[in-house]
Amino acid sequence: MKKLSIVLAALxxxxxxxxxxxxxxxxxxDKIEQEVEAETKAPENNLKAHIQAIYDDVRxxxxxxxxxxxxxxVDLDATYCSSDWNRMVESVVExxxxxxEEVGFFDADYWIMxxxxxDLTPVNIQVTMQGQNRASVSFEMDPMGGGMKLVQLEMVMExxxxxxxxxxxxxxxxxxxxxxxxxxxx
Length: 186
Description:
Elements: H1 2-61, H2 76-80, H3 83-98, E1 119-129, E2 134-142, E3 149-158, E4 161-169, E5 174-175, H4 176-184
Antiparallel strand pairs: 1-2, 2-3, 3-4, 4-5
Helix pairs in contact: 3-4
């Protein structure tokens, strides 16, 4: 009988421990779900922070008071754009050099979506992942003080970091990469 009591006591203690674990899981369930959601959203959140950092550097290149023309504090294209984008821009610049009597392709600036600039702060950043190595990022900014523009950046993972592979001005329907392809006859 003494052995039976000891076995029953051990069994009761084991059951209590399992029940306590169950209760802990139930109370921590929300926390676990939040952690899983945060991990799932990590690439989007990282890209949002990355876009903010990129446009911090854009603002360094474009003095807010317009006291001077844009300067290359940071070589934005080399630092933040894909190899394909940079090759295409280089080809456009080379073609423009050969056609000296024409204005050239770049009559506006794709970083600021215009010729003049005002507030270059991206707001309402939205990220759409398109697999592990591609994403589309959209945001609004008021680069010329005349109203918000919807900007879309096509991003690619390259050389261990997210790089801009295309700039698209959604408000005016301007796809920079597509227009460069047409200009180059590709």
